[in-house]
Predict the structure.
Amino acid sequence: MMKKSGYTAEETQVIQNTAKELAGSGIRFYTGHCTGQKAFDLMKPLMGDSLVQMHCGMELVL
């Protein structure tokens, strides 16, 4: 989802629709660098605690 330039209205809608679908799954999602900060910022308000941004050195215990 990461782009160097801004998103079109259609791309923004796709990202938000994706976030809504994922949020309804009951699964927690961890994003990496390929999601990009802009997409993460669009998705986080819709997904809340079900979306977590991973960072270098972060340890995930399953």
